[in-house]
Amino acid sequence: KGELWYRVDLGSNIIGWVISSAFETPQYSITTKVVQVESAAVRRGASSSYEAVAAVSRNQEIKIIDEFTNSSGELWYRADLGDVIGWVNSTAFEKPEPGTISLSGTYYVGNRNTNLYSGATYDYRVVEKLNFTGKVTVLSGFINDSLQTWARVSTSTGNIGWVPLKDLVKSTSELDYVYALSNAALRRGASTSYGIAAPLKADEPVLVLSKLNGWLNVETAAGIRGWILESQTSKVSLKRLASPSTYTEGNASYLVWKKPTNFDFTYSKLSDYRLKLTQGITDAELPNFKVKGIKTVETVQSTSTEKSVILTFEPGYTFTIRDYSDKVTIKVIPTGLVGKQIVIDAGHGGKDTGAIGPTGLMEKDVNLATALLLKSELERNGASVLLTRSRDIFLELAERTAIANSSTYDAFISIHADSFSSTSRGSTTFFNSTVNFNGPISEELADSVQKYMVSSLGTYNRGVKEQEFYVNRMNHLPSILVELAFISNPNEESLLRTTAFRQKAAEGIRKGFQDYYSSF
């Protein structure tokens, strides 16, 4: 047919053909029209049923590149706004006549400063302050003598009154947010000569109300309004998960997102094999490829400005999640101990003896001997082990966590013997959730290990406890610290001295890991 096509490589193992015209700037016959109404939605298609992608306001000059009459007989214009192209109803360019207009349906309050008035101008009495994104039922419409369009509405409290139509949206998806760049200023007017109305943090989301000559009239989450240069904003938040990719390593598959900036978020496990990433994410690019062990990845709106990412896993798989300054990795692994990678840290060592028992038994020796036995136990059952120390040497706490944090391993355990008084007794497992990103599953791991360790040792169960030990607090991995028994107690010191007791500790801890990795 004489058509020119290009073969393109999109990455992610996708190679295909694109017609050359896709890379040519389309030629439009451009005319200019001026918006005559207070505001109008720019939609994806030539009908009010299409999603709104932007908004235009009164006196704004619009480039018109096409027109279309839809099946309802409505004339729509295709508008080029520079950063977006969409369709605007032709009535937006017609000067309205005062009087009653046809208007009805369910709408939502589109900003935090919307009031219900007793009449269709701002001069009337305020009946009620409306809640942002609250639902109202529109009964009719009216254009007042100032050519402002107002809606007569019924609220959830039973009040009936008037609201400026520009303060309502048909769907909360029409809310237009931008994100402040570093050093952006929110001013009292649309000029740098105006004073600053409020400070803005980098990447702070603000709601766009209108535009004027390169300035945006916006509203903050605190309800403060002002003007910001459009050039000092970004349409895309820097607190997003971007550019998903995948790779495999052994029996593990990885899903990786890039982070444009170092921001914090949290996660939780839900029912039905689901993992939820939330609190801090404003957007996420969804993978267009399959990751072994993951059934689906989707986003849901968790607040007006934030989204949550929900990953649904296939039965028989679990995960290790790591949050770095520039990326997030989700390691997808089959359930069971086989193939799991575990870092074992024998506490103290070298010049640091740790606690010393009544007869001179040193904690560092108990810890190392037990760590070596645990290594053998785990490896016999299919796990891989990395020791922070395999001999009597001194390591700083930061060196121990650096070994774990620079690895691709799945969990970390630090082995210790407790010390307080001659009558203190029992075994304890500690975790950290106040700082450790993996606090939620560190606690689950601690529960499993404590249960089986105490059962194997026959010691008094002192429980699972939250603590800010450095090796847990500064660890990127799910991490726990176990206190086998009290070396300060003569009876428990004598137990800690024996290989049999240490072996029982290793077996119990191994069973705890098996229990933890037996399910999602």
3D architecture notes:
With 520 residues, the protein is mainly beta. It folds into five domains: 5-93, SH3 Domains (SH3 type barrels, Roll); 99-172, Roll (SH3 type barrels); 176-234, Roll (SH3 type barrels), CATH 2.30.30; 240-333, Immunoglobulin-like, CATH 2.60.40.3500; 341-516, Zn-dependent exopeptidases (Aminopeptidase), CATH 3.40.630. It contains six helices and 38 strands. The strands form ten sheets. Strands 9, 10, 13, 14, 15 and 16 form a six-stranded antiparallel sheet that branches. The protein is elongated, with a radius of gyration of 31 Å. The two termini are 55 Å apart.
Quick rundown:
The chain has 520 residues and is mainly β. The chain is built from 6 helices and 38 strands.
